[in-house]
Amino acid sequence: MTEPETQANTRWYVLRCATNLENRMRDKLQQRLAAADLEAAVPSVLVPTETLTEMKGGRKKTVHRKLYPGYIMVEMAVDEDGNIPEDVWFLIRETAGVGDFVGGDRHQPVPMEDHEVERVLMGMRTTEERPSLRIQFKVGDRVKINEGPFESYTGVVDEVNQAKGTVRVVVTIFGRETPVELEYWQVEDAS
């Protein structure tokens, strides 16, 4: 997915919608805009997501997680006074399943600040370039090693390194506590 470029005379707004229906509402809104030939007035409709890599059932899985469940972002052309054109306003307001704009009153929504838009778009860009890992362990968790030379040993998580995707586990070998650095997928919960 390529992230949109903000155009000169446009502003970003946030719309409420039902949780878990964000993608469907985005598609529905885009279809209605195309049917009304208003695509140029609304160049981008997106559901902010991040890409995570996690282990489930011993397999590496990439998932897309919504950053703001129940909300979609819309980039819309505005006039010189910063107002949304009426035809676009009514089309969005009359789209079933799409709720109110966030901020302002019913007739004049408040656009997102530029730094807010950039923060969301940067977050999406970063996770697309390099999916982040979601390591479910925390310091103090009891784990079992299920791969490598220490297979079947149990120990306690001493350190979690999200950036490298590793965990340091303290295991008892020959009566001595020894720290072992492992890939996050080499251990499982032993509670």
Summary?
This protein has 191 residues and is of the alpha+beta class.
Task: Write structural notes for this entry.
This protein has a 5-stranded antiparallel beta sheet, with no helix packed on it. Strand 3 (49-56) and strand 4 (59-66) form a beta hairpin. The protein is built from 3 helices and 12 strands, in the order βαββββαβαββββββ. It is α+β, with helices and mostly antiparallel strands and 191 residues long. The mean pLDDT is 84. The chain has helices at residues 22-35, 86-93, 114-129; strands spanning 10-17, 44-46, 49-56, 59-66, 71-77, 98-101, 132-133, 142-145, 154-161, 166-173, 176-183, 187-189. It is elongated.
The rounded distance between the terminal residues' Cα atoms is 39 Å
Rg measurement, Å: 23 Å
The total strand number stands at 12
- Helicity range of the residues? 10-25%
Strand order of the largest sheet: 11-10-9-8-12
Rounded average pLDDT: 84
H/E element sequence: EHEEEEHEHEEEEEE
Q: How many helical elements?
A: 3
Q: What's the shape?
A: elongated
Strand content: 35-45%
Uncertain parts: none
Going by helix content, strand content and strand pairing, the class is alpha+beta
What's the story with the biggest beta sheet? 5 strands, antiparallel
